[in-house]
Here is the input.
Amino acid sequence: MRKFIATFIALIISLSAVAHDDRDHSNKDKKAIVDVIKSIKYGWENGDGLPFRRNFLDFEGARYIEGGGQNAGLDSLVEHHVEPEKDALEYLKLSFSEIEVNFEGDDKSFAWAIADTRIKGKVNKSGKTFDKKGFQTFLFRKINGNWKVVHTHSSSRDNKCCLLYTSDAAD
Here is the structure.
């Protein structure tokens, strides 16, 4: 009976250690993914393509969707969208909140994240400001120990609470 109790206790301790290690691993991966999202935020706000080139998996067939449009491939996203905005906009402020990260697969090498977004900016040419809110979805694959974005989709609309208070709301 003592052997049975000792074996049972050892089993419980080892299972809790495995569960703890898996949770620590999951927390490390979640932090890594949130760090990638923070880096992408920096890239958008500063018109800097480098965070995209470091954190996106560049592959044939890649598509990044935003506001009903798309960029086919990483070069298109960076060269025709991210970098030109630094000259087209006086400022761009982006926030990601309520970031939820989910892992899939037996080896947890696929993840998806969804976040609430808020986008504010001012267009240089017209002087118009915008204030939008919505959602962003990121799909990730773990490649050689690093999380890489394989797809994004964002959708936003005018932040109705603020339309009443902006000077260009009637335009």
